[in-house]
Amino acid sequence: MKRDASHLVILGAHEHNLKHVDLSLPHNTLIGITGPSGSGKSSLVQDTLFTESQRLYFESLSLYSKSYMRIQSPAKVKRISYLRPSISIDQKTRIGSKRSTVGTVSEVLDYLRLLYARFGASGIDQQALSIRNLPAFVSQLSGQSKRTEIGVLLEEQKKGTFHIVFQKLLKLGFVYVWVDGEQLTLTSDLSLDARKKHRVAVMIDRVNPDHGISDQKLKGYETHLQTLQGRALLCRTGNAETAFAKQDRYYEPHHFSFNNPFGRCPTCEGVGDETCQTCQGSRIHPTYGQVSYHGIAFKEASSAILSDVYEMFGKKIGGSDVEQVMLSQLVGKLSVLNKLGLGYLPMCRSADTLSGGETQRLRIGSQINQTTSGMLYLFDEPSIGLHPQNTHALVAQLKALAQNNTVIVIEHDISFLKTTSYLVELGPGGGLHGGTVVYSGTTDRFVKRKSVKNSKTHAYFKMEGPRIDIPESSSEKSVTLSDISKRNVQISKLTLPLEKLVVFSGVSGSGKSTLLFEIVLPELQKRDHNVYWVTQDPIGKSSRSAVVTYFEIYQLIRALFAASPSSRIRGLTARDFSFNTSPFRCPQCLGTGMERFELNFLPQAKMPCQICHGRRFTDFLLRVRYKDKTISEVLDLTVEEAATFFQPYPKIFSPLRLCLDLGLGYLTLGQPTSTLSGGEAQRVKLIYELSKRKAQGHIYCLDEPTTGLSSYDIQFLLKLFARLIAHGNSVFVIEHQTDVISQAQHIVELGPGGGPEGGELISQGTPDGIRKNKKSLISKYL
């Protein structure tokens, strides 16, 4: 094991189920971390490496900065040497606020805003926003508004209290100022928060648009502008504001932001409603939406798909050095996003409508910068939602990044893992059976070896892993849909067999989700089919939702504790053992066992509660035991351990046994459901469904259920599908994983591309039939 600066050295990592793991990982290398679900991959990468990197960053800050932040617990590791600054991109399927778009998440819109603010020209008239045009502008408001206010912009996005400025304005006889869009009355004690950036203007006049603005008044405005050393004149009518500069034009980046009150459309307030007549769905104030760069209006560029934006600016040549640099950075960002297969996404598309794979690749694209060096990048399954045909483009980007940075990837896709330079497999199983290093070394050596002891991955590298065959159904039932037309999906006729495994395949953006969830599923419901939609959305609305509560067995467990002699002596009831409502839950963490806190400029962090030390309850309640275990110790049991512990109680044992059958024995009873991967969440939802009633004649629709699952784990998922189909159910799945597609009894493939180039039914039928179809893109991977 090398222990010099050329390697990242980890000694004695024991977070969660890690069993004092020692590793030496080469820097400036693409490293794959794999292993079964629950084997400790995230514990090593996220909870050890990234947590320790955050802590070291915190330690480097000044005492003043630390006073605003909470001290973070160190990772459970003996020592980490030669750890670099880290950037982590996880499996989050939802990012940002409801106002987030593809343009904001990818940061392309930020580059455009800067470019247009610096080099944009008015799309109407070069003189449209000059001071001399103010009278004509106000006259256009005649009949629309009886009150228009004129002001002078003093400062733009600047920190300070502005107390001295306000005192000066007060002495000059001014009455009102506009601070961050809000009108305030000048007083002797008016002061702002010095830690925040502010936009400050002073109101100098009110006019009636019907009376217009005389030349004498305009000269007075210009005098005020010069005397106050203002940046521009402002014209405010209701919620709308327009700036008139000293020169021919005046733009700032916030003028092109729909999240800023001065840049967003005043009618729809930047929401982008397609019915909005003011901005036609572009979200931007029409004044700034028409600003152009090389003949391209901002509203056009900010609404186009990424590939078109690349075509718009890819061949533009900047005049000044600054313009050339800005163009180069914009085009470089767009080039990466297109190579990642995201060119079909519209800039204005809401981020909360994206799939998990699209979301993660957008975040990858926003982080990749080939000029960065000396960093540690941590990716969690970047191949999620990626068609096998597009995997090579992602690999190429990550390899380029690894030339000057260390790139660690948690990954299950075998074709992806084969492209890495160094491989670590954790295992051999999940939970208590995981947490050890099964293999650590070059990927080439792993591939060449005849066998690797305890490895659950090596056999699949050799294409020799065990396979689950979905039983053939003799059913001839089917549903037929005609004249399908929605978004990019255009299909004249589609027949889907029932009581079979049907897989929807195709490149990203080809229309799979639109077809299954927006066309097929609603139509089946209209025809009175019993449809069950299993999404990747997190289970539970808060961190209080746990595995044990989701399966609705916690109340049964609490009843067992309440019936114990020690509970009766203390007068305790089942309610007292609830970590949500009990008066005996920890007063500090309120029964969660963890404390969450904000780290400025870093993701939210968490640490065990300093009062109860993660046990959730007070010492008084923890004196009560059932079979020598406290309620806290029961919540810490894995599903595998709990199945043995509660075997005499069928209602508790039943869902736990299903979890074991489907490879989820490593989950703990008290584990928050929000921490489950997309694949784990879908299996848990199905287990809940099966444990509550005998499912028969249902149609189950799933969206990439293999998320977070290794090839070994996928066999458990296929067992579940086989079980559902054997009971007369249908399983409709959107999937890219070839292990699942090859087991399908019917494949529906859309394409050939994404966005406008997708939506066509390019092939359908059995895997054998698809392999012979020359139009099929998936055929060569089956």
How would you describe this structure to a colleague?
This protein is 31% helix and 20% strand. The longest helix is centred in the first third of the chain and has 20 residues, at 41-60. The protein has 782 residues and is of the alpha/beta class. The strands form seven sheets. It has a six-stranded mixed β-sheet with strand order 5-14-15-3-16-17, with helices on both faces. Strands 8-7-9-6-10-11 form a six-stranded antiparallel β-sheet, with helices on one face. The protein has a six-stranded mixed β-sheet with strand order 21-24-25-20-26-27, with helices on both faces. The relative contact order is 0.11. The chain is built from 27 helices and 27 strands.
Q: How would you write the strand order of the largest sheet?
A: 5-14-15-3-16-17
Overall mean pLDDT = 89
Q: Judging from the principal axes of the Cα atoms, what is the shape?
A: globular
Radius of gyration using CA atoms only: 30 Å
